[in-house]
Amino acid sequence: MVNPFYFDYVLFEKTLIEDLSVAFADLKQIRSNQTVYCFGIASHAEFESLNPFMLTEEMLWQVVDQDLQDDPSLSRGMNRDNLRWYYRYSYATVDHDYFLSEYLKETKQLVYDGMRSFDGMIISARKELPEHEVTLIIDEHELKYRKACLNALQKLNQLGDFGVGTERNKVIVLFVLYGNAD
Predict the structure, then answer these.
(1) Which of 40, 55, 66 has its CA nearest to residue 177?
(2) How far apart are CA 121 and CA 80, in angstroms?
(3) Element containing residue 172 per DSSP (H, E)
(4) Residue 54: how many CB atoms within 10 A of its CB?
(5) Cβ neighbours around 47 below 10 Å, total
(6) Phi then psi for 89, rounded to 5 degrees?
(7) Is 99 helix (H, G, I), strand (E, B) or coil?
(8) Average pLDDT for residues 22-40, to the nearest whole number?
């Protein structure tokens, strides 16, 4: 018999909302002299990491200038403004360690505990079920996890955490999922 697996997606989403709200409020205060353009969550496809991030125009220019300095060949195909535009509308800037790893402690503990249970269930399922059924179990979990992350961002948006009115219109909200289980 396949080991049971339990992950409380409702509690995960609630805790994620609470942790993100604190993270983003702290960041807005810390970077109050900067122009915020992006809030988001980054996660690995296998869910071993989950981190909020907040990007500002000032950080974006810093990344552009550093990348141009590190790799002068970038300037052959793009000027500084074009590279800024490209980075702003991609998740490339997120790769530059602007994650807020000190936040989401409670949420990360829920994910860690849940994934230990999930991994045990998958090991058991692989012994007893055809692989396509195991894949369906994994896909269902990933879908619920992603939906909870997106719901958390939508709830924070409704609460005005990313600004309101014209202020909100200037902000991008992202959920970045890195990697692939395959």
Answers:
(1) 40
(2) 50
(3) strand 172-178
(4) 23
(5) 21
(6) -105, 25
(7) strand
(8) 86
Residue with tokens 């958390």: 152
Write down the mean pLDDT value for the chain.
83
2 by DSSP, 3-state: which? Answer: coil
State the pLDDT at residue 92.
Answer: 59
Supply 143's token pair: 């879908």
Instruction: Give the strand pairing for 36-44 and 50-56.
Output: antiparallel
pLDDT band at 181 (very low <50, low <70, confident <90, very high): very low
- Cα-based angle 30, 146, 98 (whole degrees, multiple of 5): 25
Please tell me the least confidently modeled range out of 5-14, 98-107, 160-169: 98-107
Which residue type sits at 155?
K
Integer Cα distance of 96 and 25 in angstroms: 21
Provide the 10 A C-beta neighbour count for residue 176.
15
Q: How far, in Å, CA of 91 to CA of 40, rounded? A: 10
